[in-house]
Amino acid sequence: MSYQSKRTITSMVTGIILAAVYIIYATGKTAPGPDNLKAWALLMLIFIGIGIAAVIIIQIFST
Q: What are the extents of the domains in the chain?
């Protein structure tokens, strides 16, 4: 399998896993209330950072 296809597959899998974890966390009991926009924005920024770090780390190890 070529490097480009490995990179694409790992990016897709990482994105799906991260989205699933975010949905589970956001619909759980520990999610911020509907009126707390600052907490929702912080949660989204944290997950964006985790996603970027995860993609970088997985891409390094998948070569």
A: 3-61
